[in-house]
Amino acid sequence: MDRFIRALIRWQAADQPAPARTLTVAELRSRYADSAARWSQGAAPEPIAAVADEQIDGRSGRFGVRAYLPMADRGRLVTYLHGGGWTVGDIDTHDRVCRRIAAALGAVVVSVDYRRAPEHPHPVPLQDGITAAAWAATAFPDRDHVIAGDSAGAALALGIAMHHRDHGGPGFAAQLLFYPPVDPHMRSKSLRTFGVGYLTEADDLRWYYEQYLPDPHSRTDPAVDLLDADHRDLPPTVIGTAGFDPLHDEGVELAARMAARGVAVQHVPAPDQVHGYLLMADMVPSAAAAMHRVLAAAEGALSLTPATADHAARLNPAREASV
Fold first, then answer.
1. CA dihedral defined by 308, 167, 153, 73, rounded to 10 degrees?
2. Given 245, 249, 272, 282, the catalytic residue
3. 117 Cβ partners below 8 Å, 6+ apart?
4. SS3 224
5. Cα dihedral angle (11, 15, 16, 20), rounded to 10 degrees?
6. What is the pLDDT of residue 190?
7. What are the helix (H) ranges across the chain?
8. Global pTM?
9. Sheet holding 107-113, edge to edge
10. Which residue in the list 94, 164, 248, 275 is annotated as catalytic?
11. What are the backbone angles phi and psi of residue 32, rounded to the nearest 5°?
12. Which residue in the list 111, 151, 188, 190 is annotated as catalytic?
């Protein structure tokens, strides 16, 4: 295990933060935002050509998106769904993550501020993501489109890819999934092995599912029970896992099942990391290195779908910066 993360685990053991189910949602969101801010404190953000916020219409209300234009545009588009158990986190907590992705892939990144549980349980966050991906494809056309996310956002990303596969939505050149939760029944060995004392508690994960899926019957929905879903005809996929993550085994099993269904999958392990390492990349060198390896694999996946050769010549920066 990385020495910085080992020290953080010792600090958490001494501090004993309150379990999620003992706090209000507002308190949890504030704690998560404070933690994300601490991880990036003092670090210079990745330079970006332009950033713009927009409100778009969902099926049952409006929600926000934030578009990042890269300094060196390579004709890619990433629709990004943030993590946080479908309940916490937002486009601000994942601002540094999206900037890094934009810079590494030369991509416009559209970060989705989907409406969250418990105020908006399943399927609202998924529906917002579906709408946002279609909006992004229209706002930034003629690009290799990647659907991506971390943790709960990775689960949403996979659900979005399956929805658009089945309903004729925008095609995706690749999908990029960081430590996805794909088994709402929580049956994996890693949940038992790393479910206590490794920064992400299994009982907190259980509580997040309770907020997102207040109807127990919805846990069998293929858009939620993603491990047992139909993975055929999905785009090339990169799955990043963390070695000391309660969700580790779910990511490994997902990669195996997708490969068995003929999907081009690359599993990129980070043996010395914990769940949520993307948010640590500004302060923990090994977390930044793990993120870099996953993004390098995404670059390889995109090579399977060649970018539009003359995209740069046809790009209209003024039009895109106004979005």
1. 10
2. 245
3. 86, 87, 124, 125, 208, 211, 212
4. coil
5. -100
6. 98
7. 3-15, 25-40, 95-105, 124-139, 152-167, 189-193, 202-212, 248-260, 285-302, 311-314, 317-321
8. 0.93
9. 50-57, 62-69, 107-113, 76-81, 144-150, 174-178, 237-242, 265-270
10. 275
11. -65, -45
12. 151
> pLDDT tens-digit profile of 223-273?
999 999 999 999 999 999 999 999 999 999 999 999 999 999 999 999 999
271-289 pLDDT per residue, tens? 999 999 999 999 999 999 9
State yes or no: is 73 an active-site residue. Answer: no
Closest CA to 101 of 87, 118, 80, 85: 80
Separation of alpha carbons 125 and 74, rounded Å = 29
Contacts of 35 (CB under 8 A, 6+ apart): 279
Residue whose tokens read 């969101």: 29
| pLDDT score at 322 | 38
Q: Which of 90, 122, 84 is nearest to 210 (CA)?
A: 122
Let me know if 245 is a catalytic residue. yes
Enumerate residue ranges in the chain where pLDDT < 50.
307-323
Structure tokens at 81: 């769904």
Residue 216 CB partners (closer than 8 Å, separation 6+)? none
CA 187 and chain centroid, separation: 22
